[in-house]
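S2.1 Query sequence (Fructose-1,6-bisphosphatase, cytosolic)
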Amino acid sequence: HAADTFRTDLMTITRHVLNEQSRHPESRGDLTILLSHIVLGCKFVASAVNKAGLAKLTGLAGETNVQGEEQKKLDVLSNEVFVNALVSSGRTCVLVSEEDEKATFVDPKLRGKYCVCFDPLDGSSNIDCGVSIGTIFGIYMIKNQDTVTLEEVLQPGKDMIAAGYCMYGSSCTLVLSTGNGVNGFTLDPSLGEFIMTHPDIKIPPKGKIYSVNEGNAKNWDTPTAKYVEKCKYPTDGSSPKSLRYIGSMVADVHRTLLYGGIFLYPADKKSPSGKLRVMYEVFPMSFLMEEAGGQSFTGKGRVA
Ligand code: P6P
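Output structure tokens follow.
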């Protein structure tokens, strides 16, 4: 029956965000407008990633980013799209992007009250082989948008007010939290809309998967090495855990959120402060993990 194939009461991401906004009667809808512009950026990147191979968007753009990584054309394109979308939303005053050496302070005429920290295309070294990649973002409120300084951007992760990621893979999935749980949406390309497919995501309490780059094992400190050893050779009679490591944080975290287990990128002799970037990888993913009932730790305790 036609009725079976066409759901007529779609929970789109826009409708969900508006529902969330209605929980805050004092809200002027600024976050709703900001998120709608982030969603636009994700739709654009999803389209570009899907065409990358055909449109010769893979390969190096010849520039390097602040981490000295070769920038692929998709990196540059994605960054430009998100910067333009965020600035034109009129709801941001400062942007921190993994692809830009300096923070972007928005023209005072277009300023809003939010700071967005984002990695427009995380895991981009995987573009050429078709492995899932993603956009990661975290949102803070800035006390005084007109006199915002870089110091104000460096807020603790616990002050983040919203976070999310968009994974560009076999399907395009956007996972979002505005502080009231975590929800997942899948892009319906025929509609150009993100439809809720994963309501109220909660990480399974027990997981059988550990996710780490074992290639760094010789650089690990003893506690890390002992923990991973226990995953492989449990001493309590339980069966060994399975290792799954994609090397694209969005994909590894998404699998962990849905299937349970642990994802870790421990500090080691090669990267004494760890490799993952705090502002636009660690804090946003920690926000989501905790909102989904999980936990997030640095080597010295819970992520602040
Ligand atoms: P490695 C991608 O460059 C990234 O920042 C994350 O997406 C990913 O989890 C990590 O680096 C992979 O690092 O050293 O295991 O290749």
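The chain has a mean pLDDT of 91. The first helix runs from residue 2 to 5.
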